[in-house]
Design brief:
With 459 residues, this protein is α+β, with helices and mostly antiparallel strands. It folds into 3 domains: 67 residues, OB fold (Dihydrolipoamide Acetyltransferase, E2P); 144 residues, Beta Barrel (OB fold (Dihydrolipoamide Acetyltransferase, E2P)); 167 residues, Vaccinia Virus protein VP39 (Rossmann fold, 3-Layer(aba) Sandwich), CATH 3.40.50. It contains 9 helices and 23 strands. β7 and β8 form a beta hairpin. α2 packs antiparallel against α3 and α7 packs parallel to α8. It starts with 11 loop residues before the first strand and ends with a strand.
Length: 459
């Protein structure tokens, strides 16, 4: 029972870190009052400085580590504390896996309402160099006009100029460094967010684990192309190795969204190739595709093995399909795959991939999943043996879950990047008569608090 209020909490105090929150913050408690502590590890005893206080919790930063946790290590990146990308890099990797499993368990318990079996997390085949989609904000210094590119400090829009990032392939650092220098030489200015001025606001790199090639996307603060940006694109394509193409994306809006609606190819090809489950995929500037291809391959093979072990030529629905990655990987063990995706560009790209892989049993539907479900029920076209749900972080709507239940006669395979919305949706499905045995987590994003999960649901 809580016996203290925020007024009782001093500005500085010593606390023991008990566990991690689902956002990777250390949790300490003072007579039931919760304190979230940045860059802390369960087992730490720390002197903290309190920041924001609310009625039920406070945020804090470490002033001094009095007794470090046995799981605390020196980060392999010197910028870990200032860069907002790797929240858990100061924790030994096997301990990260254990703590992430606990995050899933705690989330399931608090939202689902009871203890759910959570399997040991399947680790990433790579813990460095795994991030194959890089999105660097760009700016420039006020006086020298030097181009800066990197990540924002955690919880801010203060740019950290990063010249070496160990969680992305090493050649991406070389691409970014080249662009920093070549942009100035070509007369391309960096974006000033405070003034909404300057040209180059982001550099996006889609790079391949399969063939080590890269697609470079220059996001500019404009609705039209000028000669300086053209020159920069030509230099990137001609002077760097293993560049498949250079695109420009136009984004002149005052927004936090990285990419605008329009993308134009300037040099080479507008895609990079990646391999999953022995299939070759084309990934464009705006294609949704997992940033850790080897860990994604683990997930796809896990799902494929389950289906092949338990079904003979099933009829499969691939909802929220993106470029139909699941459907393409499962096509050879399915009677038919029906794919549903509302983003037109993703469906067009999926069609190309399907034809190039010689697949003939996938039906593509460019529509909203909910509308597709409703149409299928009205036409009484029969139930699917398996429905694969791979929604965005917000999870599925109740309407979509209801439709999926009505259309599925055996299993729903739910792939989730958000334990909280997964727990919510599992609870709803159980109330509708479904059951499942366990949650299988995968470490898609080492050194961060993000966790991918797969659940096999009996309908």
């Amino acid at each position: 029972m809580q016996t203290v209020t925020k007024k009782d909490i001093p500005d500085e105090l010593v606390v023991d870190i008990e566990k991690l929150s689902n956002l990777g913050l250390g949790i300490a408690k003072v007579d039931g009052y919760v304190i979230f502590v940045e860059n802390s590890c369960p087992g730490d005893k720390v002197l903290i400085k309190i920041g924001k206080k609310t009625k039920s919790y406070a945020n804090a930063k470490i002033k001094e580590i009095i007794e470090p946790s046995k799981d605390r290590v020196t980060p392999f990146c010197p910028l870990q504390k200032v860069c907002g990308a790797c929240q858990l890099q100061f924790i030994e990797y096997n301990a990260q896996l254990r703590l992430k499993k606990e995050i899933v368990q705690d989330t399931m318990h608090s939202i689902y309402g009871k203890d759910i079996e959570v399997k040991d997390i399947i680790q990433s085949p790579q813990v460095k160099g795994y991030r194959h989609k890089i999105q660097y904000p760009v700016s420039e210094t006020k006086d020298s006009k030097r181009i800066l590119a990197g990540y924002y400090k955690q919880g801010s829009h203060e740019l950290v100029n990063i010249k070496y990032c160990p969680i992305q392939p090493e050649y991406c650092d070389k691409i970014i460094e080249f662009i920093r220098n070549a942009a100035v030489e070509c007369g391309v200015s960096g974006y000033r967010e405070d003034l909404h001025s300057g040209e180059l606001r982001h550099v996006v790199i889609r790079t391949s684990e399969y063939n080590k090639e890269s697609l470079v996307v220059l996001v500019i603060n404009s609705s039209g192309l000028n000669n300086n940006v053209k020159k920069l694109a030509v230099r990137i394509y001609n002077e760097l190795e293993n560049i498949t193409g250079v695109c420009v994306n136009y984004n002149s809006a005052k927004t936090n969204l990285i990419l605008g609606e329009k993308t134009q190819l300037l040099e080479g090809e507008d895609f990079v190739e990646e391999k999953l489950c022995d299939r070759i995929f084309k990934i464009g500037a705006k294609t949704f595709f997992q940033v850790n291809p080897l860990s994604a391959d683990n997930i796809f093979r896990y799902v494929k093995k389950y289906i092949s072990d338990n079904f003979t030529k099933p009829y499969i629905l691939d909802a929220y399909a993106g470029i139909t990655a699941f459907g393409i990987c499962l096509a050879d063990i399915a009677e038919k795959v029906v794919s549903v995706e509302e983003v037109k560009d993703a469906v067009i790209l999926a069609d190309k991939i399907i034809k190039e892989n010689g697949i003939e049993n996938i039906e593509l539907n460019n529509t909203d999943a909910g509308k597709f479900f409703e149409r299928e029920l009205k036409t009484c076209s029969g139930k699917f043996d398996i429905t694969i749900l791979d929604p965005p972080r917000k999870g599925c709507s109740k309407e979509s879950l209801d439709y999926a239940l009505k259309l599925t006669k055996s299993k729903i395979i739910y792939v989730s990047c958000n334990p909280a919305t997964l727990a919510r949706d599992l609870k709803y499905l159980e109330e509708k008569g479904c059951s499942f045995k366990f949650v299988q987590p995968f470490d898609m994003f080492p050194h961060t608090y993000h966790i991918e999960n797969v659940v096999i649901i009996d309908v």
